[in-house]
């Protein structure tokens, strides 16, 4: 690794002041699980790193909200989410997803904010949070703003965050009346990253889909929703024919890409087959 400056601010305001909107070689480091790998491989050569370690106590709180949702500080470790009663009560699918996310050593270090800011489509949490309708709270020199997670990602390893902005929290709205499922399919490659990640959240009544949110990751350049497939399901009676139709629609809608985990044709088959299975599971009471 090339030499770099390391700053350790004592407050969020100080951290923001140390960032440079015009210099991508200056960035923050939280858990550092992904960033350190990029630095060791030479993919990223920072001039300055701004450590968030000292301000973690102000940004790692997990709190149940009065409406049934949950607010999760950006510096909360993934293992904290996995074990949190507030997270399990509000959206158990998050905790269940983290049981198979990377390994326990990574989960004990990696933070939620860093996981999202990294912008890697192979991560499990982005599609889950998108399907749950979650949003991120972002702090910058001009104050705070809140945006949906689905609008965070602009490309592979890219987000719309400015160089002098930080994610401070993730807000998950109440999920009353909904069921959610996340599945990932790996190609059993050396890194074991998923070839496909699918998150589905639905609200049903009398065997009819009232509302569906479908998010895809890993097989696409960014984690994203499939709005056309969602619209196809809305107001429809749940039966085998509908699930097959939805699977085909999702395979056609998703802009899958080829990589070392599989060809685009292979991934379209994965999308069709596994969305059908996930929808069956979540609409028959198998979701959480």
Low-confidence stretches: none
The biggest beta sheet, please?
A: 5 strands, antiparallel
Overall CATH class of the largest domain: Alpha Beta
Query: How many structural domains are formed by the residues?
Result: 3
- What letter string, H or E per element, gives the SSE order? EHEHEHEEHHHHHEEEEEEEEEHHH
DSSP strand count = 14
Dominant shape = globular
Quick structural gist:
With 288 residues, the protein is α+β, with helices and mostly antiparallel strands.
Helices and strands, with pairings:
Elements: E1 5-7, H1 12-18, E2 26-29, H2 33-40, E3 48-51, H3 56-59, E4 62-64, E5 70-73, H4 78-83, H5 85-98, H6 104-107, H7 112-117, H8 125-131, E6 135-140, E7 143-148, E8 153-155, E9 158-159, E10 166-172, E11 179-186, E12 194-205, E13 208-217, E14 224-225, H9 227-233, H10 240-253, H11 264-283
Parallel strand pairs: 1-3, 2-3
Antiparallel strand pairs: 4-5, 5-10, 6-7, 6-10, 8-9, 11-12, 12-13, 13-14
Helix pairs in contact: 9-10, 10-11
